Structures are given as C-alpha cells and as structure tokens.
Amino acid sequence: MKDFNYHSAKDSKEASKLASSSSAFLAGGMTTIPSMKLGLATYKDLIDIKNIKKLSGIKVSGKSVIIGAATKHVEVSNSKDVKKAIPSLSSLAEGIGDPQVRNRGTIGGSIANNDPSADYPSACIALNATIHTNERKIEAAKFFKGMFETALKKGELIEAIEFQIPEKSSYQKHPNPASRYAIVGVYVAKHKGDVNVAVTGAKSCVYNDKDMSKALTGNFSSSSIDGMDLDSSEMNSDMHASADFRASLVVTQAKKAVDAC
Amino acid sequence: MASLVGSRVERKEDKRFLTGKGRYTADINLANQTYAIFVRSPHARASIKKLNIDKALKSSGVVSILTGKEIADDKIGGLIAGWAIRSEDGTEMKCPGNPPLAKDNVNFVGDPVAVVIAESLAEAKEAAEKVEVDYKVLKAVTSTADAMNGDTIHEGIDKNLCFDWLLGDRQKVKEAFDKADKVISIDIINNRLIPNAMEPRACVADYNAASEEITLYTTSQNPHLSRLIMSAFGNVAPEHKLRVVAPDVGGGFGSKINVYNEDIVCSWAAKKINRAIKWVAERSESFLTDIHGRDHVTHAELAVTKDGKFLGFKNETIANLGAYARVFGTVTPTYLFGPCATGVYEIPAAYTNVKAVYTNTAPVDAYRGAGRPEATYTIERLVEKASMELGIDKTELRIKNFPTAFPFKQTLVHTVDSGDYVAGMEKAKQMADYKGFEARRKESEAKGKLRGIGVTSYFEACGIAPSAAVMSLGCGVGLWESAEVRFNPTGQVTVYTGSHSHGQSHQTTFAQIAADELGVPIENIDIVHGDTDKGTFGMGTYGSRSLAVGGIAIVNACKKIVEKGKRVTAKMLEANPEDVEFKDGEFIVSKSNKKKTIGEVAFACYLPGVRDEMKSPLPEGDEPGLKETSFYDPSNFSFPAGTHIAEVEIDPETGHVKLEKYTACDDFGRIINPMVVEGQVHGGLAQGIGQALYENAEYDETGQLMTGSYMDYTMPRADNFPEFNIGYTCTHATTNPLGVKGCGEAGAIAAPPTVMNAVIDALGGQEVTMPATAEKVWKACKNLKKSNAKAA
C-alpha cells in the first residue's frame, strides 16, 4: 500500500471540498482498503465519511424507508423498523459477506462501488429507490450506469437511499460459494400497479428484467415465468458460472422470490 | 490412579492459544532485524534475459538485494526430492535442479528470482517493484493429462516425465481380466488442492558472527529434518552451526514439511548481511508458492464375476508434480498411493502404474492423506460403479470382497495386522439409518429434489514409515522417531519428542501417555518439541505418525526409566530387582510390600553419593541421573480403517448439493483422547468434503493461477456441513505396545469418494468431476431429465 493522506470529514460539505481527482471517500472500506493493499488502486487522499453523523441512521415513514449512506449492513439487518416495513431488505443485508463485513461495510459504499455482483443495487432497482446526494436526487434506474460505474460525479457524495415500501417483496441469491457475492441475485418487488424484477450478478450491471416484470405484473405467480428462456448473450461467464447457467439461475431465483413473497 | 489414556483431558495448549499467548514465527522480532520481500516470476515459464537491480538498490532503506547469481556463486544447494523412485524399466527418476533463487529459468508463477532486504517492510516492497527482470516468455505446460505432449520444460527430461513407475504384476492382471464376466472402468480426476493452513508460511533468520551460528525460526512440521536438508543439501551451514526452531505453528496439512526457498535464502542472506531477516508470506504468496496437493488423472478398471467377486484391478495414473520435485513430491503418488490402491478388498491380481510429470505449476507434494485419498477415491468410485452395474447393494458388494481374517495380506504390499471391516460396515449402516434411506429419498422426490446415498470403506497405511518395509521397496530412508524422558531431581518430567505439533495436541496426548506410564500427575509433565537445540534428532509430524511412531518412542523411553527405577529401588530396599513391581507411580517389593515412589527414586538417582550410613542407591553399572532416550523404528505401518456414509439432496433447478447427513465409523485402535480424535476427524472431513464439493486450484493455459484468493478458491465453512455423526469400532494394532493407529488423515481420505458416490447416486449414475459445483450438477440434472423423458 502506498502512502496516502487520511482525512476525517465532519460534514458532507467538508468531505466534498476535500475531494479531488486522486481521492476516494472511505466509509466501511470493504473494497477500497483491499484494493489499495493489493496495489489495484492508489489514492493521494482518503476522506473518511463515517464520522459524519447525518449520514447514519434509518427513518421509516408510511411510504418509504430512508437509510443513511454510512449505515452499516448489520444495522439494516437488525433494524426492527426495516424488518417490519421491508423484511426482504433486512434479510438481504443479513446475507452480505460475513459478520466482519457486515459490521464495517455500508449501504452507501456498496451502491457507490456498484460491483456487478453486489446485493444492494438490486434492492435499489426493485424498490424504486431514490439516491440522495449532497447535490441532487437520482432515481435508481438512472444511477447504475455500468460495471463499477454510477451517475455520481467526482466529489459527489451519497447521503441517503430512499426505498419505496412495496406490497410484497423477496430477494433470492445464488451465492458464489467462495466469495458469497451473488452469482445471480434476484429482487422481486410487487408495487401497486407493477412488479420489478431486479437482477444482480448476471450481467455487467444490475438491471430490471422487463420480460419477467411484465409477465408478473399480469399474473403474480411463479408459473407465469416458469420455463422462460432468457437471452444469455450479455450474461457474465466465468469459472464459477457460464452465461447459460446464469440465465437459468435468473429464472430459478425469480421464481423462488415470487414464491417467497 | 485412574488411567488418563482414553479420557477427554482438556488441552494443555488451549490456554495460550485461546488467550492470544501463542508464539508463532511472525510474533518473533529480533533486535535490528531487516525485512525480506521476494521478487517472483509473473510468468509460468520463461527464461531470464536480464535482471537489473540498479534502480532498486537506490530505493530508500535497502540493505541488500540478492539474486540467483549470488546464491549460485556461494554454492548454496537447491531444493530436493526426498525419495528416489525407479521407473518400471529400472531407470532412476529424473529431477531438475531447483535453485532457491532462479538464475536462468523460471518454471511457475511465484518462482522467486531475487530477494530484497530493507530496513522496513514498506521499503522492501517499494524497492522490489523497482527490480527489473527481462523475461523471454515461453509456452507453458499446465495440463496434467497433456504434460507428456507439451514442450520440454527441463532440459534433458523427455516428455516432462520424472518416472514411469509400476507396482504389481501386469501379466497376472491380464490373466485375471481374461477370466472376468464383466469389466468396470472409470476415468477420474483427482482435483488439485491448496492446503491453506491458517498461518501463512514465515521465517526469521539470525546470524551470530561470534559463534558463527545461524538460527532459523520457521513454520515447519519437522525442524530437525529441515536442518538436515539445509545442511546436507543446501550447504547453508553444518548442522552444529544451524539451529532450526519451529515454534507454535498454525496448521500444516503437509504444506510445511518442505524446506522452502525462503528458508534457505533468508538463512544464507542473514549470514551475508550479518543481520536478522524476517519474512512473512502474504496470503497471495501462500496460494502461489505453498505446495499444492493431489492433481491426478486416472483410468482404472475392475474385473468382476457376475456375482460380484473382484478378480483384478488396474490403475493407470498421471500424477502432476508441478514445476519441481520436492521433499515428498515423488513418494506421494507412488509408495503412499500404489499400495493402497486396492482398498479394503481381496483382489487377487492388481497393478498401479504412475507416470509423474512436470508442469509449469506450483510444486505438488504431500497434503493431508497424501496418496491415500487419491487411491481410496479411485477404488471406491469404481466399486460404487460396480454395484450399480451389477445391481448388487453397495454395502453387500463391499462385504463380499472384504478380507475374512487378519493379518490380511493385501494384494500389493501391505500386511494389515488388525481390523474388522464387517463390524465397521454394520455399525456405520446402523448409525446412518441405511435402511431408512429409501423413505427419505421418496420424501425428497416429493419436494422435487434428488437424494443420493454414498458409501466408502477405506483402509490406509499411516504411521510412516518402518525402515525395513520402505527400504525394501526401494525408498532411501525409513522414518523412525525419537523421544527423551528426563526427570528433574524433584520429580517433574520433561518429554522431548522429535515429532512436532501444529494442531495435533501433542502437549496433551503425549502427557497423558507419559502420565500413565510413569504414574506422575499430568500437570507435572511437559512436552517439548520444535527446536533442534532441545531434544534429540527426530523426523517430525506427517503421515499420521506422531502417536503411532513418536508416541511409542515415549512409551519405550518411559519403560527404560521404570526398569532403572526397579534396579534403584531394589538397591535402596535391599531386594532383588525381579521382585520389584511398578504400579501407579510406586515401586513395590512384592515380598516385603516396602515401597518407594517414582519421585523418591528420581531424587535418589541425582544424589548417588555415600555419606555416613547412607549407601549409594545406584546399583553397580548404573550412572547417576534419570533420563532415557528411545529411537523407535516401527515394525509395520498402522492401518486405520472404517466405513463412511453420506447422504445428499440436490436441487435440480440450481444444481445445489446439500450434504444432509455424514456418518463416519472409524477404527483407530486404542484412542488416547476422544476429544482430540473428534477434532482430527472433523478437520479431516472438512477438508475431504471440501475437495468433493468446493475446493479446486485452477490454472489457465498460460499458467496463471485463477483461484489465487478466497474470492475464487472455495474454502468450506461451518455452514457447509451437517452435524457429523461420528462413531468407532476398535481393534487394537498388534504391532505397537499402545495398540494405536493414526487418525489425522482418515477424514480427508474417506470423505471425497463418500460424498461423490452420494452425488452420483442422486444423479442416477452420471459422472461428475470434483468439486461437484452447482453448474456441473445442474447440467447433469438436465441430462438426467432428458434421458428420463426418453425412457418414458
């Protein structure tokens, strides 16, 4: 690891001011620190945002759950309010990494990193989330741009994520046996009027599967997507799972999710 | 006094391990020490055109940078294969040189070419990045099956073939196959594994210019052997000027038997720079450069009669040695593999042929079980297939071919002294509720799941290795063990063992043995190991040998103490030595009932003088003091055996294999500490199940390790396992006074075929290679669905 300057920002304004083209925000550090240690990333400045009080905490209203960006996975999984409002979001958090990761890693960090196999991006898509930054509000559908790529501008800091409370929802993951990241994770959420089927792990970036959404909006039953043959041409293929296997898993996990709703 | 052998004595070592007081190599920091970083080849095969250290030398904090040239100039020897193997045609095996720092050629990713020594770790790392190596990249050979057709890796070694070895009689096998009603054949791959000890390798080397002594602290399973090899073959220092200390070591599983490049380089360099050097592997280095295990490609056949009698067996295996042959690299796929190839069965004719090949991958060596898991996997997969093809119940078919009497002269080499395989099978079936399987299968079926049951009956040869037996087979060395038992004048005991504990609980189990032999309270007994300056030369710990060989040396040394005690007591109590009996720590003259405690005798042995009326307690010919040594060379291997039964449930939609039940019924002979044995069985099972379902070391065609971190290499975790159902049968070994057999490797030996037999049973007999990952199983489920549809 190369030398770097460590800053602890007291508010979003200061964090944003410190940001430069060679800086990174540090929340849980679950990706940033290992990347630096392995020499895959180097930064001149690390700006620690986890001491910014405003960025932590969970607020539940009648329609939405708002989670501060620096809120840890363990806090989401243990929150009685989240469990009551969106139980699938609580169980998603409970299934991330291992206890060490859940005790350090944050929701904002996960979303900002946009790892193609991360769990939270699928929740954002399925639950029609709004990403609150220090500059604006971004709809989840416009936030996730591509592999490790988001709509965030340099120095723009996620402050909170606002999830719409669905009628029913479930997240089902087929984990990579080694890393326990999603080989495929499918988040199904039934809202008033429509159904989202958000898929992570399968392609270079999280996406809403339109065909399945349509089928399930018409008839919210796993039988309506059973045997659906998805196009695997854009699916990821690696030593853990081929594109064809992933395509099959997307349907299987979606069915499971519908059944679990 | 109640016997401690057989009871669940709490582990003496746990206090320090559980309170963070263990002292591992990385915990050792010496005054004025420097830090080493190794510059390693990023290529699997290349020649070194130029190596430039000028820039790196100018980097801050650099003390020295040494390369293959300096180590060659100083005539430091390379790493060696410890066992010479002859090919079927009588020629000696072919081994390439393996210099500690490569000078001309690199042969696997991670092969070290230079060491950078600096004042701090960060400075060493920084400077290492500035070492410029100009490589000419050559085409790598990575496939086990195709290695003989690849480019020649090492000059003069045709077809990359180290040896082409045969055990058995091809002609007899041919005759047996000619008589067979049916031949069952199988092609299998024994997947490559990475041992992944919890503690990565490390060493700290120190040099004392006044005494000219090098001290090496290192993560070794066998410090004495390391010293011998470094001295005799490495030319690092004569043995009396080299002290090797292996303090607490956090797991080995065979990966810490070897003397490694870093041990030799740091020891040599410490003398060169006259300062201490510390090196600790990063986890990525462990993945790349620790020895790997297994990696066989096998074709095997079993000749049978239609009613299920086995007539003949053949085994044609290609074993991958990796880039170089290391200490146990050549014996693992031969003498530790071939003799066990026919399993627990009477098979009149058999042979095993092994072609050992070099590839541009990390060296492959002994990993938990070493050869015996590969042998057991082959025969047990074959027998399971035979039961399917013959339509005979898998347990009945096995019992039909078990030996009926012991000692059992096994087909190829071993004479198994003791065992009762039928009893083991019957007990395992009962424990696993074998009879109830069909009902459970139907329940799974009703849920849309596939359920399978798999059985393995195994034996293994451990307690390596009786000199007479292995040397008659052509091996260069036998592996005895030493023990020294010392009484302090005030009655406490220190036991020195040449074996080494890196998780095996020697401090407890060996103390239990000595406590029973000597009648001394266990808290007054200390076990010392791991330092060539303390205790006698010994061979170390691997091949489940510590108890069956090292433990017996302790028993024998204790018996010598008791014999001397009897003579001393007789003198003190004016009796005949033949009339003195020893029981529970007391020497009793049977005629007079007069007695002396062992403590009193020990004290007397240290005060042998004559003063006033006091007479010397020492009989004529006996020297003062109470200390005895034993070198124990076993008369035979020990042969643990057992039957394991696994049940899996498969989700055909996702290919997920859930291990529902695992039953292990083992015969380890007499058990010293059941708690410790359970730990050993659990650990072995975890690694064996890991091989079957999760672990796989994978290289791409250019020789890059694809599974170089825990993000891609699946280490099994607790939630991958059911509660293990463990039981025992017990037949005492007749070849050692404790009646013990080894228990450390059994789980890793029996679990892979047991689990895979269950998976393949669930899949209607379709072959799946290890590890049975979700995708492979999903594909097999799809095929099964297709073939079932056709059949319907």
Walk me through this protein's architecture.
- The complex is a heterodimer of chains A (261) and B (792).
- Chain A has 261 residues and is α+β, with helices and mostly antiparallel strands.
- Chain A has helices at residues 12-18, 32-37, 73-78, 80-85, 87-94, 99-104, 107-113, 120-126, 140-143, 210-218, 243-260; strands spanning 5-8, 23-26, 45-48, 58-60, 64-68, 130-133, 137-139, 144-146, 149-150, 158-164, 168-175, 182-190, 195-200, 207-208.
- In chain A, the strands form 4 sheets. Chain A has a 5-stranded antiparallel β-sheet with strand order 4-5-10-6-7. A 4-stranded antiparallel β-sheet of chain A has the order 11-12-13-14, sandwiched between helices. Chain A has a 3-stranded parallel β-sheet with strand order 1-3-2, with no helix packed on it.
- Chain B is α+β, with helices and mostly antiparallel strands.
- A 7-stranded mixed β-sheet of chain B has the order 3-5-1-12-9-10-11. Chain B has a 5-stranded mixed β-sheet with strand order 7-15-14-13-8, with helices on both faces.
- In chain B, β20, α14 and β21 form a beta-alpha-beta unit.
- Chain B folds into 3 domains: 14-20 and 32-140 and 196-289, Aldehyde oxidase/xanthine dehydrogenase, a/b hammerhead (Aldehyde Oxidoreductase, domain 3); 417-478 and 634-696 and 706-792, Aldehyde Oxidoreductase, domain 4 (2-Layer Sandwich); 479-632, Aldehyde Oxidoreductase, domain 4 (2-Layer Sandwich), CATH 3.30.365.
- The A-B interface holds A 38, 174, 176-179, 181, 239-242, 245, 248-249, 252 and B 284, 653-656, 694, 698, 706-707, 710-715, 773-775, 778-779.
